[in-house]
Amino acid sequence: MILDPNKPDPFVQSGPEPSIASQDELGYCKQQSSITFGNSTRYYIFVLSLYCLAVIFANSLALNFTIICMTNEKNVSSLSASSAATNESKVIEIVEIIDHHLIASNISTNEAEEPPEYSYTSKEQGWLFSAVAVGSFIGAIPLPFLTSFFGTRIIFTIYGTLSGLSMLLTPTAASVGYAALFLMRVFQGIAVASLLPTSGSIVHEWAAVAESGFAVAFLSCHQQLGQIFTMPIAGLFCETSFGWQGIYYLLGLMTLSGFGMFFIFFRDTARHHVNVSHDELERITYDKDCDDYSSEHRKPPYLKIFTDKSIIGVWIASIGGHTGFQLFSQYGPTYLNKVLEMDIQKTGFTAALPFIGALAVKLISGPLSDHLTIISQKKRCILFASISQFLMAFCIFALGWMPIKTELFAKFAYTIAIMASSLNVVGVVKSAQLQSRQHAHVTMTVIAFINSAIVLLLPIFVSTLSPNNSADEWPKIFFIIAILVTLTTIVFNVTCETDPRPWTHQSNSNTNNSHDRERQKN
């Protein structure tokens, strides 16, 4: 749609005239196609990117479901003990609860007496699940440097291809031995490390500032979509002649084909895409400084980023936010069933429902944060972060205190806490995106590090304070984490910024300009 010059541009905010990067300054693609998708190429980019993000996340979850088919019932029941070692344990717990009766009913008596196809101890299973977090650590270390030098298109494709190939090789690796299977899980974790940084880069390069909330929330839906897709498909394959191996071949092919399309269609910036019209480019670059696109700024100023108080505030807030979320992700089903003695079928439904609700919250909160223009961008981020984290902290505290010791109250607090945590994507995450601009991938990589560390350390914390999973032990855990979430959110509110930080405008003479010019040819 071409804007009417006699009417105000809906993307234009009131106030002083912002700097607009001209098309010459941006190096706009000279070979423009006549196909512009109705000036909406960026939305096709968002959908394709979401697909690729979701399949990588789904790949990391597949083993949590197929382990039920790979092992016998005895080994499956032992998962609840090992599930405390990983962020995917919630999925194992949920599948065990929901599908336990299906497994028993679909295995004949003769089959049930046969030895399991694969037999792993609880410790081995725990390490298979933790391998994703280990791989995420490994994959995140070089990611900022690789992305800064080669660009998002190449690096994300490499990480995605690694994930797809590891999925295709997983059935073979399982038959070879435990070490080979563990290695495939590490490869899948390496790819997971790229999810947050890639999302940050795509939002900066392809989303208008006025729709950044929508873009951040939309791309973050890959977590919920990965879970929603993998659970029923994995269960279906387990009950067919294809066996559990089928889900790996399917996801592997989906991943490789998706990243093939991504590499063909995606470009690191909108200004280099042949299908982006002049009108759409103006929308995307409005209120963005041309310094954001200068080749002289390709190398991130790491020292300035790591010493910026507002960025440090984002990372501190991420510690509290991810700890609270992982508490429910890893231990929610266990707490509801073991501590509150909730019926296992009700536990499965209660544990799964909030994550579906979280998807809806993200899809609503993204556009809402963009259109709530009666308050400043900074106040919007503080508002949504406060609602998200303070509400989650309150629910965590309430579960520890349990003033109303009923099953209904526990369900309500559990559901609200998880749905509230998803609102933080337009709070802390959006703030990090807006102030980091072209260096968002660096900020997001550190957040990915934080999440991986929490995944590995939280089980130690919980097992220390609650070795018996008793009702008397869990309140201490809830109270400590509720205080942590509250304090880290206060730090964020005090240090929050949304305007581009000074280091997003300052040049760095060490950048390889010739390499950037070579990238622009593509």
Task: Give your account of this protein's structure.
The protein is mainly alpha-helical. It has one domain (37-506): Up-down Bundle (Growth Hormone, Chain: A). The chain is built from 24 helices and no strands. The chain has helices at 23-26, 41-70, 73-77, 79-82, 89-106, 109-113, 122-140, 143-150, 152-176, 178-192, 195-206, 212-220, 222-238, 245-265, 278-285, 302-306, 309-339, 344-371, 377-401, 407-422, 428-436, 440-465, 474-495, 513-520. The longest helix is centred in the middle third of the chain and has 31 residues, at 309-339. It is globular, with a radius of gyration of 23 Å. The chain starts with 22 loop residues before the first helix and ends with a helix. This is Major facilitator superfamily (MFS) profile domain-containing protein.
